[in-house]
Amino acid sequence: MSNGSLHRIAFIGIGNMGWPMAARLIEAGFDLAVFDAAPDRAARFATEVGGHAAGDAASAVRGADAVITILPTSKHVGQALDAMGDALTAGTLVIEMSSGVPTATRGFAESLAARGVTMIDAPVSGGVPRAKTGDLAIILGGEAQAISRADPVLRAMGTTLTHVGGVGSGQAMKALNNLMGAAGFLIGVEALLIGQRFGLDPAVMVDVLNASTGMNNSTQKKFKQFVLSRRFDAGFGLDLMAKDVSVALEVGRDTNTPTPFAALCREMWASAQGLLGPGQDHTAMAQFSERLVGETLGGGNRAAE
Q1: For position 27, which CATH number holds?
Q2: Quick one: three-class SS letters along the chain?
Q3: Domain boundary among 112, 145, 166
Q4: pLDDT at 299
């Protein structure tokens, strides 16, 4: 394996996505230092998977060729960068893989550039299953030379790498992708509820949709697996989906683009946050629609939960 000039990687954020992504880098032969704000998580990763557990962000990045951040929000990224301090030295490449706010990321990149540190953004799509197999789609924003430098690292985690523009562009595209996914999930659940009330079997409806023009990611990979099964454990949080939809609307506002349907979609996801409470999987959004209707998909029960 040739991994170019990047060998020692600091990986900040060993969450649901970060853990399998970091594991792919270990498998690819990179020297990894890991840090996570959750107590003992980095140590557990080092014990179970490999690499070196760091006690703080500064220790993780000291001597690293590249730093990967994959954190819940841009606020957390800013806090992590501040915590790195002088340990983040000129010549280091920062690969920001969070689903962050594009304008915030541009601000980080400008501040880092003044110190001789280059940042690119590289948010991912594909969820935990594709993170485990290294088949993620990675959406890239930044200078072409920096993205080329990061290529061996990125290809250990993803199979589809698309450069879409300057720094922040990857995150804008990711937010718009998740906006479409969030809207597709919502309309699909409503269609299943309508069909069930008409007398159709939701599972059969999913089969028909997947053979027809109504097919989308949710019909293929979410409805049977996580909604009709009542598992609601796809591995991506409802809070994070609501955040991504909000980011998409921010991009809309920044570009003076009217977004009436996106605004309604955001309101629905934000309402579900309030009703269902924190810590829910995003597929639990179906329960919000079910409560509006007073019927559980697959359950045949019209009593409100």
Answers
A1: 3.40.50.720
A2: CCCCCCCEEEEECCCCCHHHHHHHHHHCCCEEEEECCCCCHHHHHHHHCCCEECCCHHHHHCCCCEEEECCCCHHHHHHHHHHHHHHCCCCCEEEECCCCCHHHHHHHHHHHHCCCCEEEECCEECHHHHHHHCCEEEEEECCHHHHHHHHHHHHCCEEEEEEEECCCHHHHHHHHHHHHHHHHHHHHHHHHHHHHHHCCCHHHHHHHHHCCCCCCHHHHHCHHHHHHCCCCCCCCEHHHHHHHHHHHHHHHHHCCCCCHHHHHHHHHHHHHHHHHCCCCEHHHHHHHHHHHHCCCCCCCCCCCC
A3: 166
A4: 67
